[in-house]
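Consortium newsletter contribution from the modelling node. Members have asked for a concrete example of what our holo predictions look like. Here is one, prepared for the 5-O-phosphono-beta-D-ribofuranosylamine complex that several groups have been discussing at recent meetings.
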Amino acid sequence: MESLRARTGKLYDKPVSGERKYRLGVLGSGKGSNFVAIADACRAGRAPAEIALVISDVAEAGILERARERGLRAEFIEPGKFRTKLDESAEQAYIQALQGAQVDLVVLAGFMRILKGEFLRAFAQRVVNIHPALLPSFPGLEAWKQALDYGVKVTGVTVHLVDQGIDTGPILAQQTVPVLEGDTAATLHARIQEAERELYPATIAELARRAMKPTRN
Ligand code: GRF
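And here is the predicted structure:
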């Protein structure tokens, strides 16, 4: 396997001038609790970043409402005819919107579609996701339930770069969450989501700080 440095290099190779903030484009399909945690961290100055644009493939998604009530640009963009991915013209529309908003990093926050080829080429090594398990364990859907059913004593959350696979990209950060005696899928999921709301903003803040570091010639 290529080194982690090689697989994450592009994240850091284009430093952002210290005069502006690191620009985030957030994609989500759901209620947007991760988005809210990230937006609040930006607003409170805990991350040298700003939300340039929020996009959802679901017109009535809570994430769009949460963004608009914070005065942020939020758009529904039609995903096209497929159920689990964007069709070709939708993919172009997403790319253009994000490039038009000059985003430095694409943040997936509960975006329920797989992003592939063109999109990942347009934002090579610049798309991050949060997964509710300690990857490479329990990729895919309902990872907290998979962990509970398997009987592990510790699970957690992972922030990773998105590549062509499902939950296979290079790992940027992880946080453990214990599985407690008597946990149900719901109680474990709630504790995992709390950890997500800590780890995701903290990791993005770190990426922003590293990108904003002045370069030495
Ligand atoms: C998160 O819990 C995360 O694990 C997964 O999608 C969920 C989105 O929730 N990737 P929200 O929309 O951020 O509330």
